[in-house]
Write a sequence for this structure.
């Protein structure tokens, strides 16, 4: 008799086969392409969001093979102040997975590891890549397996990656945490609409995620022993399309208070924002998007001076802003119900000198002159 896990494995395998992933990869090798075996190689250690691994914004070097390794981790995490437990499935242990940065024309070479301690097959679909379901058709691995995928980052921009193991498994793995983003920078860096170079002093990666945690008959969030155990109840909540949590970087409060992102007045910050499943509308309260690539595609001219921008579900965007005033800025999904009630709020803590010309409290709160005194 099949247990739950075997059932899920076979559902995933069948669905993937039905999606017609190629089993034979055509030999590439058009004449103009470089001999990949002769290209320089660079190993990159990924770091957990909101931080981003060290990288050059502009490169004068030719294309290279950039080596990454990600380990899939299935684990229980707590996602809010009430201690709600969540059976997460993650790339490299974080929600979202790490931001991977390369330059256009580089080759991305990912070693994806699914440790034997996991319970599910996983894979990865890179929206930055071309072919085989974004690599998903070539990377499906069972617990105890690993796979190496190489693809050419042939277009610039910010792109989502996510697990897509087939059929009903796809949305479930994505909203369980298996999503992240890649930034493919133009080799000569970011530009404004007139071709003037744009530079950032800091970069942060925010991955927004909708979560669907089942409740018991008393309205309390339920906890489960494994992702598979949570599956049936979770899908029931998912199908109603009403998230119980909408969070930045894995849980409510992951980027607020003492976890705030930091900057100084005069610094330019690039904010990469992804949502692999659902639309969102980032807004920096008290600031703007000086330059915004809403769709994340750096070959398109950036919009300027935006108040709020739109990230389509299944994409990542980038916003560049130079802070002009000190203080704590909330960075929110400006569906404010999602920001305040469901968790989609982050903070920037900005140090520096206040500019009275831009804003001044001319008169502090006080009694209305001539009004009643008590
Ligand atoms: Cu997965």
């Amino acid at each position: 008799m099949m247990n739950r896990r075997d059932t899920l494995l076979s559902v995933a395998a069948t669905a993937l086969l039905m999606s017609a992933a190629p089993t034979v990869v055509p030999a590439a090798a058009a004449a103009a392409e470089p001999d990949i075996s002769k290209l320089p190689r660079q190993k990159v250690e990924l770091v957990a969001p909101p931080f981003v691994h060290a990288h050059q914004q502009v490169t004068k070097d030719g294309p290279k093979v950039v080596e990454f390794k990600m380990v899939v981790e299935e684990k229980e995490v707590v996602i809010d102040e009430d201690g709600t437990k969540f059976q997460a499935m993650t790339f490299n242990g974080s929600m979202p997975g790490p931001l991977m940065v390369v330059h256009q024309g580089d080759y991305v070479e990912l070693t994806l590891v699914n440790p034997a301690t996991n319970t599910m097959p996983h894979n990865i679909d890179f929206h930055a890549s071309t072919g085989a379901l974004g690599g998903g058709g070539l990377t499906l691995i069972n617990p105890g397996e690993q796979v190496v995928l190489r693809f050419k980052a042939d277009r610039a921009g910010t792109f989502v990656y996510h697990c897509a193991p087939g059929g009903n498994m796809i949305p479930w793995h994505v909203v369980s945490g298996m999503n992240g983003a890649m930034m493919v920078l133009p080799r000569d860096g970011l530009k404004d609409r007139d071709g003037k170079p744009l530079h950032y002093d800091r970069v942060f990666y925010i991955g927004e995620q909708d979560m669907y945690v089942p409740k018991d008959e008393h309205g309390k969030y339920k906890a489960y022993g494994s992702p598979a155990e949570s599956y049936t109840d979770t899908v029931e909540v998912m199908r109603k399309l009403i998230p119980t949590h909408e969070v930045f970087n894995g849980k409510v409060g992951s980027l607020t208070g003492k976890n705030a992102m930091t900057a100084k007045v005069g610094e330019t910050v690039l904010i990469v924002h992804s949502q692999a499943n659902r639309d969102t509308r980032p807004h920096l309260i008290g600031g703007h998007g000086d330059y915004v690539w809403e769709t994340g595609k750096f070959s398109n001219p950036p919009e300027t001076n935006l108040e709020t921008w739109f990230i389509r579900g299944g994409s990542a965007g980038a916003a560049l802003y130079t802070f002009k005033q000190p203080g704590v800025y909330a960075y929110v999904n400006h569906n404010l119900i999602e920001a305040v009630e469901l968790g989609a709020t982050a903070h920037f803590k900005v140090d520096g000198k206040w500019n009275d010309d831009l804003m001044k409290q001319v008169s502090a709160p006080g009694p209305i002159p001539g009004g009643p005194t008590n």
Summary: Residues 45 and 144 are 22 Å apart (CA to CA). DSSP finds four helices and 21 strands in the chain. Residues 4-18 form the longest helix (15 residues).
